[in-house]
């Protein structure tokens, strides 16, 4: 296919330079190329691109840290692109190294290109090595995400994988060539960055270059293909906004007179030869997918695939080709499978290209993203550390300055006044209103909203802390022996773990101590209530107090409220209570024996038959003359109150 190739930055420019070289050497000439960079040395070192194809944007000054987007003039780039012969292009290929700075211009360029060209835009993205650091890997992950959004496909080439391969190959060659002459003949060490990058770029140019040339012919160099793969098929395999990996493997054909003679011998040799050719194609295909792929990936996660075999037409085994086709077709997740052959005259190599598109499982991409996450966390942590250090430094400086001025520490804090000052302010009524601290909205602490409007919580109802001087109905239990006076309403501690008591539990109108002890985490309540034996005089001033059976009998005159009701199971109602209404209780509600109470001093809330409700319709109640009854009742009433100290009111 015919492509316009744009190299961005050092890596992109060098890759484009190599691709251009391969294109010109193949005599296909299907490529127009430009290299854009802000580093003049990088552009000067290119070996093949013509000078007009090198677009240089100088920084205003070397130490200038202006953004690349400010340095590179997009309009100028577009003018240069439009001046090139781009009439017949099938696609635009943007080559760039991820993690660098010049790639930042990619979104702007892609945006402008989309305005002027309808052809698909692909990116050839070079993933950085791990030893370049987390910052570069993290930026590479960002760049990758950005490219994936903007272009029609991202062809990946992994420097890390290929650097390791190159180093391993160089080491292996070094151990083999131990002789002095062999060592002298050795290629320059791969540890030299420029040589290393040249090796990598050579690899990229071979893998991608052949793919770009698929479907392009030159009269002298090419035979007629049996299965023609045109540019459209390559483009359709690439398109889809996905990641693409390209596997490429070659093998040198046996040469020499002996081989030529062997080929012409017999039919048996001919058959054997064709099997060898098929086996070669199959083994090359495996090598391309598993070893010589631009980025290691999971074949089964590919959505589309393209198989292209290239070499002298006599060496391209159709049997081997069909077997490979079937294997790839069955292995990929998707259904789109394209293939073709690319017969080349005058070559001693057989090669195969397998392109996998729509890849979802690429471990190196995941690794870059993981590194990015890690790097961001580290940066955040570092930032926090710096801020913390700055804060400490400021505090120290403030302390030092206050110490120099001879002022006490609290002077610095506008919220606090010295004891003398506060006394004066209080006296003069000039105490500043402190802003209420933010509270948990689920818990309203008593006494916290003095003077202000009390905010009520549906889940917890607490009684406002009473003013100690006024008796406003607070219920104060008598102190435990040796303990202090306990104010239930004021001192009950509320923690979030304690289940909220029911609203009526500590209501002013009625206090009921439940039979079952509160759970462990409500220890405050149970600890306070259990040991209570005997309240003293005048302790209970509420209107109505309900006791559970565990409460012992209080002494005379203890309760001075309006009315005290003994638990539900209260046995004895006030004498003559029903008389008021002219009712007389009979049979079903026997009055508890007074003597029993007297003797034991206990008996509150003892389980017993409950007085039944007085219903006028019931036959057991009898309506009598109320006045007469009252009179006789007065006559009969003993002098001493049989309740032995409990005053019944109302
Ligand atoms: N394959 C290959 N990768 C390269 C080459 N040069 C650089 N890289 C990789 O590409 C990444 C980006 O490098 P460059 O393209 O040189 O960066 P830049 O965009 O020019 O910007 P700077 O960061 O300022 O150099 C690097 O981190 C390397 O991993 C190269 O010649 N070949």
UniProtKB/TrEMBL annotation:
Annotated ranges, domain Tubulin/FtsZ GTPase: 3-164
Sequence ranges assigned to domain Tubulin-like CetZ C-terminal in this UniProt record: 195-371
Binding positions for GTP per the UniProt entry: 132, 159, 201
GO biological process terms held by the UniProt record: cell division
Keyword Cell wall biogenesis/degradation: no
Coiled-coil residue spans: 365-397
Ranges of biased composition (kind: Basic and acidic residues): 463-472, 610-623
Region (Disordered): 463-503, 585-650
A Pfam cross-reference name: Tubulin
InterPro entries documented for this protein: CetZ, CetZ_C, Tubulin/FtsZ-like_C, Tubulin/FtsZ_GTPase_sf, Tubulin_FtsZ_GTPase
SUPFAM superfamilies to which the protein is assigned, alphabetical: Tubulin nucleotide-binding domain-like (SSF52490)
Signal peptide annotation: none
Superkingdom of this protein's organism: Archaea
Stated role: Involved in cell shape control.
Name of the protein in question: Tubulin-like protein CetZ
Originating organism: Methanoculleus nereidis
